[in-house]
Automatic annotation (TrEMBL):
PANTHER family: AGMATINE DEIMINASE-RELATED. Gene3D superfamilies: L-arginine/glycine Amidinotransferase, Chain A (3.75.10.10). It comes from Lysobacter helvus. Transmembrane segments: none annotated. InterPro entries: Peptidyl-Arg-deiminase_porph. The keyword Hydrolase applies. Pfam families: PAD_porph (PF04371). Keywords: Hydrolase. This is Agmatine deiminase.
């Protein structure tokens, strides 16, 4: 048995579909980038929490006590059950917790919270408060049996995807953009060592207009159980994404499982272009969130929403597929998975 697999028996990066204790989010407010359309995005957050609470607990970061009171009132007025919602007061720049929240490993003695540097996607935005988020959540007593490991290396949670069994999926574009001085071999080793993986699968193609993450994997391709990959396809030959996403599909088709077999592939349909004040927005169905018993998928008010839900049902049999309206989120270049971070079972107090 490879040495890395022996290590993963002791310390392991769980897949998103494994049992969870909660989902972590941060409530938008007037000092975040949502200010200009705060009412619209609050409706998405209310719909998200309403979809989560029947299935899991929700930990909601709030900037101060007034924001907590306000968020509680908004949720209560929408008849959201608050018995499974926990608020924690902590400072943050914005609400993209997939990238500023903890990447969690299971260990023989509990959990390890990997606290990589968050640089606002390569210095595009101010992120100093977000970079301290994990430390502040630890200080607030959110986690149990967990130690924080600070790692001086820029890496966002949306840039990596694991099958829970030692295989990591990522994009060369993003990792190379963050660390242009490192070779693929060097990056590969660092990812394997820190995330306790024995192999890294790299995609060389794939992008979305309106995405400022430099091609995060969670906007493009995601693992599903039993050696499957769900990915964003484009069947419109007139669309600017067609050539690149077709090349990405070919990259994915060439990948092999640990048993040297092709992955089972589930291409997602393509939504019609969504343009806001002349700017194309990144409407990807690959930005879904897996929770206990369900898959929460972004919906954009497009005819492809239901078709995407049908693909999800095939890829995740036995899980309910729940559509969450996310058109407001892509105005700020992210979607459902980007604003959430799942917390493995047993991690929260």
């Amino acid at each position: 048995m490879p040495e890395a697999l022996l290590r993963s028996d002791q310390e392991r990066f769980p897949a998103e579909w494994e049992p969870q204790s909660a989902v972590l989010i941060a409530w938008p407010h007037a000092d975040t980038d949502w200010a200009a359309r705060l009412g619209d995005v609050e409706e998405t957050y209310i719909a998200l929490v309403a979809a989560l609470v029947p299935r899991t607990n929700v930990v909601v970061c709030v900037a101060d006590a007034d924001l907590q009171t306000y968020a509680e009132a908004r949720l209560r007025s929408s008849r959201v059950d608050l018995s499974r919602v926990r608020f924690v007061e902590v400072d943050y720049d914005d609400t993209w917790l997939r990238d500023s929240g903890p990447i969690t490993l299971r260990t023989p003695n509990g959990f390890k919270l990997l606290d990589f540097r968050f640089t606002g996607w390569g210095g595009k935005f101010e992120a100093s408060r977000d970079d301290q988020l994990i430390e502040h959540l630890v200080d607030a007593g959110v986690f149990t049996d967990a130690t924080r490991e600070s790692i001086d290396f820029a890496l966002e949670g949306g840039a990596i995807e694991t099958d829970g069994a030692g295989t990591l999926l990522t994009t060369w574009t993003c990792l190379h953009e963050r660390h242009p001085d490192l070779s693929r071999t060097q990056l590969d080793k660092r990812l394997r060592d820190w995330l306790v993986q024995d192999r890294v699968l790299w995609l060389d193609h794939g992008y979305l207009e309106g995405d400022d993450t430099d091609a995060h994997i969670d906007t493009l391709a995601r693992f599903a159980p039993d050696d499957a990959i769900v990915f964003q396809a484009c069947d419109d030959e007139s669309d600017s994404h067609f050539i690149e996403l077709r090349a990405m599909a070919e990259d994915i088709a060439a990948l092999r499982t640990r048993d040297e077999e092709p992955y089972r592939l589930y291409p997602l349909p393509w939504a019609k272009p969504i343009v806001d004040e002349g700017r194309r927005l990144a409407a990807s169905y690959a930005n879904f969130l897996i929770v206990d018993g369900a898959v929460l998928m972004p919906a954009y008010g497009d005819t492809a929403d239901d078709a995407a839900a049908a693909v999800m049902a095939q890829a995740f049999p036995g899980r309910e597929i729940v559509q969450v309206p996310c058109r407001s989120l892509i105005w700020q270049n992210g979607s459902l998975h980007c604003i959430t971070m799942q917390l493995p079972q047993g991690l929260i107090r």
